[in-house]
Amino acid sequence: MTRSAASRFLLAVLVSGSTLSACGLTPHPEPNTTLTRLAARAATEAKVFDSSDAPYSALRRENLAELRKEIQRVCGHKNDGTLPASCDDSSLDAAIEKASFDFDRNSSPADAATTAAQELVSSAGDLPEGSMLLAANQLVALVSAGAAAPTTGGAMFDPSVNKLKSSDVKVDADAARDALSWEYSIVYGLGIATASANGLLKQAVNDSIDAHQNRISILQTSLAPTGELPKPESAYELKKYQQPVDAQSTADYIEALRKDTTDYWIATAAAAKTTSWKELALAFAAQTAAGAPTPGVPIAPVKALPAR
């Protein structure tokens, strides 16, 4: 099971493009409102939780630094490589200070992380081009730090009722078909694990299979109007994974599938074109990350689609 060359090329262009500077197309560009609001929340949380939860505060400081860099990338640089005065560090500090957002100073770090994660998904349609990869990685980091998986947009889909907007499916149909094939392969892979799992581990595998089956239902229902629906294969080659034979190898195997699926949906969100597909991909990435056996362990930022 190998990602299509077209998909790999698309994300390669996306990632490489995110490092390029716009050469001062606007004389006095303003910091992007959506990114600035996200940065303001990160800055506030980093300060509020500095003494009560140092690890979470450090994560939010890291998020803030990433968002500042992204805001300035979106602003663009002048021909001499310098930032326009409207987006330099002092101007950006002022914009972040003025940004308006709701924050409960009595909230716990987990509650704050959950709110921040929800806002990332809700903001998907307003993010600048090239900013989705950062948003997806930050979302997964927040979930790994204790945020509840988002219940915004696609995260609330009932597979028996809801589907992606038909207009959005037409635009992101190829990506949705690829995602459906991926989910088929993961259900097959998890099925292998049921033979060597028992007790609570087996229940976790079965619950995971149910969750992926729900995704399959959503994708199938959404793609049905296109008339092109990939079918599950009778078997999938999963050579990169060590086959499970006992409890420990089964746990390791399931974790490898989980991490690759998280990476897959992060990359899919980064390449998404329409709002509902962005929201759904972000939700699936976060939901998969929420299944990590060791919450709080940082997940390395994704830069490319995982190989199968």
Describe the structure in your own words.
The chain is built from ten helices and no strands. With 308 residues, it is an all-alpha fold. The chain folds into two domains: 23-144; 153-289, Ferritin, CATH 1.20.1260. The N and C termini lie close together (5 Å). Keywords: Signal. Residues 1-21 form the signal peptide. Pfam families: DUF4439.
SSE order and pairing:
Blueprint: H1 5-17, H2 33-48, H3 54-75, H4 89-98, H5 109-122, H6 132-144, H7 166-193, H8 199-223, H9 247-271, H10 275-289
Helix pairs in contact: 2-3, 2-4, 2-5, 3-6, 5-6, 6-9, 6-10, 7-8, 7-9, 9-10
Brief synopsis:
The protein is mainly alpha-helical and 308 residues long.
List the defining traits of the structure above.
Ferritin, disordered C terminus, DUF4439, globular, Ferritin-like_SF, 308 residues, signal
